């Protein structure tokens, strides 16, 4: 009798859990999101361009989600964004309450040797709000302010995050492209700490996102505290029309690798949710993203914060992910060697 009672209790508990899950799944997106707090998860700490964009998106995206939930920003730094990507793909609630502010995950998936537990093609992408535009910033009191110094001065030290991060990979590819004599060190957890290290003279500079400068450190440009000898973009930015791109400085296979890395930059400014989030909630999040991207209040706020906006919808971001992930193993081996990820 005792064993029978325990079995009945267990079955009742299981039925209750199943019923609760079914009720949650049956909710309309508006009913699910109403009065709820959802999280925007980013793979870096406070400070830097991701934080600037994250707070912009958190302010405006929720206004277009049915039920108008609250949105908070969560920082989950480490492994160039892979830790946050792993969390959203595997461990986060698959109910649409966690949205990833992504790093360049397809590149991380292909180039990082360990610690990747996600598949970029299986994320449910919402779209990209920009593409990360990076350049080498050198502090005004440090060596390395010209290509001549970068190729000859052994005292130039460039900082970076992890080896899977674009800040390390671009610096390594630059060194390979121009036979640079500078050193590249990694291990800085955030862009904010790299900024402080550069200002203190602990490093000469680092590969920084444009928004980190224009949105968070505009005085660097105004007061000529930094020099930008090269930019890591597909084409020259209008703001840096006299600064060459690494693609321009490269030839042959190195140029092909630079173009491949640049093709991954939209994913570093994209939003995604996990693979098992219900389709109806993905649909309303994608619709909310599209509405935000043409919202005058969002665009005006971005302008005030000196943050650029380049819109790509979910389908285009998915195609770009497939292009990178489907690259041949032979080519990826060459890329890994060139960027120091092998």
Q: How would you describe what is shown here?
A:
The chain is α/β, with parallel strands linked by helices and 342 residues long. It has 2 domains: 174 residues, D-Maltodextrin-Binding Protein, domain 2 (3-Layer(aba) Sandwich); 130 residues, Periplasmic binding protein-like II (D-Maltodextrin-Binding Protein, domain 2, 3-Layer(aba) Sandwich). The protein is 47% helix and 14% strand. A 6-stranded mixed beta sheet has the order 2-1-3-11-4-12, sandwiched between helices. Strands 5, 6, 7, 8, 9 and 10 form a 6-stranded mixed beta sheet that branches. Helix 5 packs parallel to helix 15 and helix 7 runs antiparallel to helix 12. The longest helix is centred in the N-terminal third of the chain and has 25 residues. The protein is globular and about 65 Å long. About 2% of the residues have low confidence.
Characteristics:
12 strands; 342 residues; 6-stranded mixed sheet; D-Maltodextrin-Binding Protein, domain 2; 16 helices; globular; alpha/beta; 2 domains
Residues in helices, as a percent range: 40-55%
In CATH, what is the class of the largest domain? Alpha Beta
Spatial arrangement of strands, main beta sheet: 2-1-3-11-4-12
Helix-and-strand structural type: alpha/beta
Q: What is the string of SSEs from the N terminus onward?
A: HHEHEHEHEEHEHEHEHHEEHHEHHEHH
CATH architecture of the largest domain: 3-Layer(aba) Sandwich
